[in-house]
Amino acid sequence: MNAEASETIAAIATAPGSGGIGIVRVSGPACRTIAEGVLGHCPAPRNAAYLDFKASDGSLIDRGIAIYYAAPHSYTGEDVLELQAHGGPALMQMLLSRCLASGARQAGPGEFTQRAYLNDKLDLAQAEAVADLINASTQEAALSAVRSLSGEFSSHIQALLGKLIELRMFVEACLDFPEEEIDFITQGHVGEKLDLIRQELTAIFKSARQGNLLREGIQVVLIGQPNVGKSSLTNQLAGEDVAIVTPIAGTTRDTVRSAIQINGVPLHIIDTAGLRETADEVELQGIARTWRALESASVALLLVDAAHGITGEEKSILARLPADLPKVWIHNKIDLTAEAGKIECVGEETHIHLSAKSGEGISLLRDHLLKLAGWQAVGEGVFMARTRHLEALKSVDRHLNQAVPLLSQPELVAEELRLAQEALGQITGEFTPDDLLGEIFSRFCIGK
Ligand SMILES: Nc1nc2c(ncn2[C@@H]2O[C@H](COP(=O)(O)OP(=O)(O)OP(=O)(O)O)[C@@H](O)[C@H]2O)c(=O)[nH]1
Ligand SMILES: [Mg+2]
């Protein structure tokens, strides 16, 4: 047992604020002693015991349910004590303080899950899924996080890792027989096996990419001249009046953010101040914020009034946008021009004609945003994945790709396979540097 694990940690596991029930969770070797102090005795493992929770002077803090889990049959793999009391913030604090005074120390963010990981209760991808499940903003995101937590993503990675190791062992064995190396490689169908592994990798990447989209969502920034209807379109997409709409040009002065979802994909919609020449100090600052919002955008919607179409003003706005930022032209107010809602692709450009007021054509925009995000219909197999997982999968693919033209040099193939294995192992935590672990768990909430 290392020094940290010999310490007993405690934290309020339920969300801050008032609730019907609040839980203080304790993990580590002092659980039994703490239970004896607070409850009078340690309850039988995995039994809900209705008991008095007592202060050090014997006075009553609350009466509630205590559950004791004996190591290794607990979330963390250590002795764990859960005290379920009434969920008031003052009461929770008293109960926590009682545990801290009896030999526990305050747990850091994610420390319970980190211990579960260190005790092999979860691998790293599963541990990350715990935080992603808690933070999921849509049902689809939550479902895919549960899938990763239950080990679906990890088992795909493990299966691939197994095949990679098998191939690597074969190639390395060939190195012992230098005369026959090439023959071995051909007879062992190394090229074909490499191909099969790459196909499997592509399928995993697709699923993981969808899961990552559910986690991260996309940022959609609405820009255009004043009065073209950016705030009206924001409200239409959000389904509520999040931004002020008036016929006065220059109404929006600040960026207005709202979170929506389409088919479970979170979309962060950012309404901005209309772009125009102005001497108004407040408006100038708003316009500067518009340009800043564009720096982190995934998509820019360029709004124009359908009555006059794209003018020189819009062309100069377009010229200032980052070249690689996906853009969609929105011709708004078609209720005034009596056009029908439509989507048109002209060369590289997409034009959507709609009315933010009547809602006509909005579904075309929604569908197109999903397409731009890279969303495909949700299959059963989508699992939650983080950007670091996608990067690791890309790195595996790069090394396998590099191995393909090297089949006549087995030692180089072996090296690429070794690097691919290392990159893949980072996902589940087999080859993960300590500082990365610290970074991952520090982003958890306290008590998990
Ligand atoms: N008929 C019609 N009017 C619209 C439509 N969209 C917006 N408007 C009107 O156009 C005016 C300006 O709308 P806003 O949504 O405030 O425009 P904006 O682009 O946010 O303007 P700024 O915040 O000043 O940059 C308001 O009077 C809206 O009611 C539309 O689709 N049809
Ligand atoms: Mg506005």
Structure overview:
This protein is of the alpha/beta class. 46% of the residues lie in helices and 19% in strands. The protein has 16 helices and 13 strands. The chain has helices at residues 31-39, 89-101, 111-118, 124-135, 139-149, 152-174, 181-187, 190-216, 230-238, 281-295, 312-320, 334-337, 362-373, 387-403, 410-428, 434-442, and strands at 8-12, 19-27, 49-54, 60-69, 80-87, 104-106, 218-224, 256-262, 265-271, 299-305, 327-332, 342-346, 349-353. The strands form two sheets. A seven-stranded mixed sheet has the order 8-9-7-10-11-13-12, sandwiched between helices. A hairpin with a 5-residue loop joins strand 3 and strand 4 (60-69). Helix 14 (387-403) runs antiparallel to helix 15 (410-428). The longest helix has 27 residues, at 190-216. The mean pLDDT is 92. It binds guanosine-5'-triphosphate and magnesium ion. The site of magnesium ion has 6 residues, from helix 9. Guanosine-5'-triphosphate binds at residues 224, 226-232, 245-247, 249-252, 273-274, 332-333, 335-336, 355-357.
Count all strands and give the number.
Answer: 13
The proportion of strand residues reads 15-25%
Q: What does the main sheet amount to?
A: 7 strands, mixed
Uncertain segments of ≥5 residues (pLDDT<50)? Answer: none
Please give the oligomerization state of what you see: single chain
Main attributes of the structure:
alpha/beta; flat; 448 residues; binds magnesium ion; seven-stranded mixed beta sheet
